[in-house]
Design goal:
The protein has 95 residues and is an all-alpha fold. It is 95% helix and 0% strand.
Length: 95
């Protein structure tokens, strides 16, 4: 590649880059940026609503699971106490 072609490519790239910067800074481009950002914010809001709903449901599930485990533990403790009373009654009857 000759020096002239290298210089031509450099100048062409510089001109194209300058035109690109002007295009990116134009009013139309700014409108596109605004609409894209607005759409992104709407998506974020929708996602946050979904996340909040999921967190609330998870909290409800956790609370119900804790209640269920407490009820189960109370039932097991009651059955164990009843079994001990029966064992003591049998031991007293044998004596």
């Amino acid at each position: 590649m000759s020096n002239y072609s290298k210089i031509a490519l450099f100048v062409g790239g510089t001109v194209f880059g300058s035109a690109g910067f002007k295009l990116l800074a134009s009013r139309e481009a700014k409108k596109v940026y605004v609409h894209t950002t607005a759409a992104g914010l709407r998506v974020k809001d929708c996602a946050m609503k979904t996340v909040t709903s999921i967190q609330e449901n998870a909290a409800d599930i956790l609370a119900e699971a804790k209640e269920l485990n407490e009820a189960r533990a109370a039932k097991i403790a009651a059955e164990k106490a009843e079994a001990e009373i029966k064992d003591e009654a049998l031991a007293g009857a044998e004596a």
